[in-house]
Amino acid sequence: MLISIVERSLFRDKDGGTKVVKHRFLGFLIWQALQSTAVFFLSKTLLLFLFTRTPFKPSFLSIFAFIVFHFSLLIFSTSLFIISSPRPQRAASPLELLLGTARLILVPISNSQPLLSPDFRLRARASISFVLFVAVSAVSASLSVITLCLSCNAFDQLKQRRLVIGKLGFWGLQIGLLYGVHYVYNKRWVLQFPIIQRPPFFSFKMGLPVAVGKALKLSATGYVLSAILAFVLPYEFKGQLPVGSFITEQILFYIGSFVVILGWELCHHLHQVLHTKRSVFAPPKGSAAAETNPSEPLLAALEESTPKSLLQYLAYLDLCMVCEGNVDPWRRAAFFEESGETYKRVISVCLTPVEQFTRNVSEVLESSPVDNSLQLSHQLRSPNEQLADSKVYESFDDFQLLAWCARIVASLTVHSHKEDRFGVAQLSGSNAAVISTLLSSLLAVETLMGKKTNLQSSNTLMDPAGIKWATLNPGRRDSTAGMAGRRKGAPFYAKAYSMADILKTSIYGIVSAFYDEMSHSAKAGLLEKDWIISSKPLYGTRELLSQKLRLFLDFQAS
Predict the structure, then answer these.
(1) What residues form the membrane-spanning segments (predicted)?
(2) Looking at the DSSP assignment, which residues form a beta bridge with residue 470?
């Protein structure tokens, strides 16, 4: 409710776009405080009942523990928000950080050229944020374990209060370090946008079993790790406990670590739910702004926000839902206004990421041609080949954004067939640009996956669909199989396969909507003229794009 009220006031001042992210963060902190309060009181009541058989009673010590517990989760939630991103981020290695620091210290500052490149600054910032997150996790876990377990009387045999606090803090430190490293290494900080947008309550409820299972696994792993590290502790720090008290101590520590990790998992899940929820970038329906220019807030968020930021991702998500669904048809109808400027701006902001992705893949394919790669052994890989794979892997970092853009331009093109009263899509040349860009991107991705298409030559075979497939030299057939195997084992292969499927689905949607028009153009020999751009495509040739489009027109593309 709070987030919805804030989003309604989004367009009251100029800096409304930034307020979306800020208020989502504040809403996240509020809901996190509520759930952490419930976790604290339930766990505290359970621990006191199990180990002391006494009910939970408010006291100065319990109130202080409650404040410290909330503070520990507050710093964890803040660090979680800081490192979160809608796309993976590359971190700088320790050696690169050391060299960059030495360069800042030793090299004199020059106004003409910066000492550190913008890319290195981003990677260094990501590395520092990851290290700080792990450190904050360790501190937060230590404070949380101490506040949860200290008031239980399982440590009566240990008369020294400082030794008890140190022991609990050390246990919590291990749990925090384990969780922080696990969280960063598995890239759980990357926001995963759901396929189906549900109300936040139902989305949060669906993730509760996963959070509990993850907490059980990580707390068990942390317990085993602490048991191993216990052998290296000094004898004085281990303490001297009877067998019964030692077992009670271990049970208490496991329950405490489970509660801490459960609170973090719930925090992580709540953060994912609230920050991937759709935000409506439009003025209220019926207002003056909705009647005059309802698309301007959305276009402003797409064009003026920081590239590849959370705000821009939310704007693309809103645009995708407007184009594909029928919830806000009045907003989609506003794209087809008479001047055609709005439609061209929408198509431009969506085609730009796809075009940049195609260029990156094309550069990699051209810089490491097949003939050179075939000379390599299956096991040995040159530095150039490793660099090429790294560039391709970075190109797929924006997979979610690329998928939205392909679906948006395809949906708008399909809806323009019936909703474009002024013909702005066809007259502006946007339809040909969309088809050409999607086809070029599909050809580049398929080539990256090992599927090579060529025009007719002396060494080609024609398949039943009419595409010329290059035949392989018998002497190079084994090498080609080895190269394809390396591609399939690459980290980006799964995303490339998904990207190809999205591009095919988008093209088939356009072909189905304009099937009659394309069939008539094909019979008249004007298919290439009407649906392929006149300039050089981003990848391939106009003839190859035309052949690929005919394959889709015959519904034989696979």
Answers:
(1) 28-51, 63-83, 128-152, 164-185, 215-234, 246-264
(2) 460
